[in-house]
Amino acid sequence: MKDIVPSPPAVVRNDVAAVQALFQKNVVPSYGRFDIVLSHGAGSYLFDVTGRRYLDLGGGIAVSALGHGHPAITEALVEQSRKVIHTSNFYYHEPQGRLAQALVSLIGPGKCFFCNSGVEANEGLFKLARKFGHDEGRFEIITAVNSFHGRTLAGIAATGQEKVKKGFDPMVPGFRQVRYNDLAAMRASLSPATVAILVEGIQGEGGVTPASPEYLLGLRQLCDEKKLLLLMDGVQCGHFRSGRFQSFQRILEGVPGGETFLPDGISMAKSLGGGFPIGAFWVRAPYADLLGAGSHGTTYGGSPLACAVALRILDVIQREHLADNARQVGGFLKTGLEQLARKYPSIIQTVRGLGLMLGIELAPQIPNLPGDSAKSSATRFANLLHSAGLLAIPAGATVIRFLPPLNLRQSEAEEGLELIDSVVARLAG
Ligand SMILES: Cc1ncc(COP(=O)(O)O)c(C=O)c1O
């Protein structure tokens, strides 16, 4: 493997300033980046160009399902790239068919469409919904306040956060937001033009907020009653992160009626490719042929290479029982975070989430939180965690998210808790 995947050339390695200068001069500054220049990774750890090691509990925002440098991903990339990387969707190839079959068997009767990112998967669902309602003049999709569905024009119109919309008016018409986990508000908001409801099973960017079982079951009933499509964005909370393939399966465990619950469409991305770009949506059988030949497509969607990687990841997840691992290690991490919240109530207010999708809500005022006061407390807190050697992801202004690899070990979760404890103890002291 060494000959096939050589180390990257040492052009700008060990030079934080040089890499940052390349970005400042040449990269559109659309991201607020942390002051870290990463070099490589191994398992649950990332290393920066100065050789500093970080425990990666951010997982590249729920992407690095198997951590970094996993040999199964490298092997799949090498093996498949020797055969064929890309064919276009004018032709059939086995990896796409097999991946679709695997996803269908994990969810339920239906079909899959492949694309390259989460927002594209959502775009596909939006088009599906418009097609579904077209002949009746219905087009409106209701989403939730605090949701996040991606950064294209329709993605930001669907997203329930003003900050992503600012400066990009006018919004794509046909999207409205109502309060999350509020079934009565959803029912009241429907109009004759409504065609679909789209929600995350666990809101991610909005602050790690799971849907309640009653909400999900109620949405299903409402959609059946009003002939609406129930669409779920599983981009961040899906792919075994909750301890089940889709978060709704975990949320509805043991709830009467829960085992037969199915939405009409699910978007996927992130952990599906473990870092190799791939997105997908699944659509339930009655609607699976709505998007006929010529109605939707993308050049790279479901390439042999992307599908081979996704298939290999699924194989590792199943062979190594990583859903159970997410549940167990996630449970351990959550219990540890809850203990920290009890120990330091002036810093950590609440702990939320399921499996390896966890969030801590910081107290509104942390008096001696260092850093630029123009930055959110979540960003400033994340900086402290980074300095302690732990990567975590802010969600909104006051929540820190943990979305680590699904194969995180308990010892690594313990190490993470110790690092968080050290940061919080200093702030509280
Ligand atoms: C719930 C959800 N939907 C959609 C997206 C957009 O995915 P992508 O960035 O791959 O387009 C994200 C990204 O964070 C997400 O969290």
Q: Characteristics of this structure?
A:
429 residues, binds pyridoxal-5'-phosphate, four-stranded mixed β-sheet, single chain, seven-stranded mixed β-sheet, alpha/beta
Q: How would you sum up this structure in a few lines?
A:
The protein is an alpha/beta fold and 429 residues long. It has helices at 16-26, 59-62, 71-83, 94-107, 118-133, 153-158, 162-165, 183-189, 213-226, 247-251, 304-319, 322-343, 377-388, 410-428; strands at residues 38-42, 45-48, 53-56, 110-115, 140-144, 175-178, 194-200, 202-203, 209-210, 229-233, 265-268, 279-284, 348-354, 357-362, 390-391, 393-395, 399-402. It is 38% helix and 18% strand.
Topology, pairings included?
Elements: H1 16-26, E1 38-42, E2 45-48, E3 53-56, H2 59-62, H3 71-83, H4 94-107, E4 110-115, H5 118-133, E5 140-144, H6 153-158, H7 162-165, E6 175-178, H8 183-189, E7 194-200, E8 202-203, E9 209-210, H9 213-226, E10 229-233, H10 247-251, E11 265-268, E12 279-284, H11 304-319, H12 322-343, E13 348-354, E14 357-362, H13 377-388, E15 390-391, E16 393-395, E17 399-402, H14 410-428
Helix pairs in contact: 3-11, 4-11, 12-14
Mind explaining what this structure looks like?
This protein has 429 residues and is an alpha/beta fold. The protein is built from 14 helices and 17 strands. The strands form four sheets. A seven-stranded mixed sheet has the order 4-12-11-10-7-5-6, sandwiched between helices. A hairpin with a 3-residue loop joins β16 (393-395) and β17. α3 (71-83) runs antiparallel to α11, α4 (94-107) packs across α11 (304-319) and α12 packs parallel to α14. It is globular. The model has no long low-confidence stretch (mean pLDDT 96). The structure holds pyridoxal-5'-phosphate. Residues 61, 117-119, 122, 148-150, 200, 204-205, 233, 235-236, 269 line the site of pyridoxal-5'-phosphate.
